[in-house]
Design brief:
0% strand, 172 residues, single chain, mainly alpha
């Protein structure tokens, strides 16, 4: 006779293996979302890699009745904002440690990104995030609202404002 605990462990192991195989097809979507959040490709790739590490480490926290895609997007989004906060904190600490520069630093060359990507980068982060989740990633409003941890109406308003700002940039 087989121990119930042993069969439950084996079932959980096969569930995790199945989840791992379901993650692979989502990688292009994760990378695309990370590209909209991060300024550089290498930063986006690092963000996706760290997202996958966290997801695999916390696979037991995934609820089977929820969307794996939305769960991964949430991890990626939260990780992005966590890293931004950390960089700001580190920059403030460094600014307090270093003396003020004697001359203003040279301006970096303007990015040569084209069209829509430039317009998207000009949007405020919350509007860009909402538009990318609904428009580029094809999530429905409820999934995107869950990822952003806001009400559906709030997300719809953000998408609407983002679209209006993009249209205004094109017209000017």
């Amino acid at each position: 006779m087989q121990c119930p605990r042993a069969s439950a462990t084996r079932d959980a192991g096969s569930d995790y293996a199945a989840l791992r195989t379901q993650i692979a097809p989502l990688l292009p979507e994760l990378r695309a979302f990370a590209r909209f959040l991060a300024a550089q490709r290498s930063e986006a790739d690092d963000l996706v890699q760290e997202t996958l590490l966290r997801a695999l480490d916390r696979l037991t926290q995934f609820r089977p009745d929820s969307s794996l895609r939305a769960w991964l997007f949430t991890i990626l989004r939260n990780l992005h904002y966590e890293q931004r906060r950390r960089r700001r904190t580190e920059a403030r600490a460094m600014a307090q440690q270093l003396p003020a520069p004697s001359s203003a630093p040279a301006q970096e060359a303007a990015s040569d990104l084209a069209g829509l990507q430039i317009q998207l980068q000009r949007l405020p982060p919350l509007l860009r995030e909402a538009l990318v989740l609904v428009g580029a990633q094809g999530l429905d409003y409820q999934e995107a609202a869950a990822i952003c941890n806001v009400q559906v109406g709030t997300l719809k308003a953000r998408v609407s404002r983002a679209r209006a700002q993009i249209a205004a940039m094109r017209d000017s």
